Amino acid sequence: MLPRHHRLPLRFFRHQLQKSGRSISTLDLTLYYGSRESPESPSRLAIIISKKLIPSAVKRNLFRRQLQHHLHSLLPTIPVGYDFLILPKPSSLHLNFDQQRESLEKLFSKINTD
């Protein structure tokens, strides 16, 4: 699990990020991101996996935990001062553990933080 100060509370920020934030997509993942009020504040992340994508709660939570594990190890490389929302696509279900990490690295390398 991500540290508390790196978790994005979805209740308040999900729709705001999807409407006014920027988005980046790869074949496997979509990333919505927006800047925070304070550029020095730590980045916050959230993962949303729909029931349509993975109907079984057990498999859905396993997939979420795997992505969170990769994000935890990528935290030092993630830009500071942003909120991130990650949405997996159906093609991401067929990735193995190492390919998931590569897909996340590729996604975060595309971010334009100017």
Q: Can you walk through the features of this model?
A:
The model has no long low-confidence stretch (mean pLDDT 88). The chain has a four-stranded mixed β-sheet with strand order 1-2-4-3, with helices on both faces. It is built from three helices and four strands, in the order H-E-E-E-H-E-H. The chain has one domain: Ribosomal Protein S5, domain 2 (2-Layer Sandwich), CATH 3.30.230.10. Helix 2 crosses helix 3. Helix 2 links the parallel strand 3 and strand 4. By secondary structure, the chain is of the alpha+beta class. The radius of gyration is 13 Å and the shape is globular. The longest helix has 18 residues.
Distance between the termini: 29 Å
* Regions with little confidence, pLDDT below 50 for 5+ residues: none
Return the domain count.
1
CATH fold assignment: Ribosomal Protein S5, domain 2
Specify the number of helices.
3
The spatial strand order of the largest sheet comes to 1-2-4-3
The appropriate CATH architecture is 2-Layer Sandwich
Give helix % range: 25-40%
CATH class reads Alpha Beta
Radius of gyration: 13 Å
Q: Spell out the helices and strands N to C.
A: HEEEHEH
Give the overall average pLDDT.
88
Query: How many E-type strands?
Result: 4
Structural class: alpha+beta
Backbone shape: globular
**Major sheet:** 4 strands, mixed
- Strand proportion: 15-25%
Features:
tRNA processing, EC 3.1.26.5, hydrolase, 114 residues, single chain, 3'-tRNA processing endoribonuclease activity, Ribosomal Protein S5, domain 2, 19% strand, Ribsml_uS5_D2-typ_fold_subgr
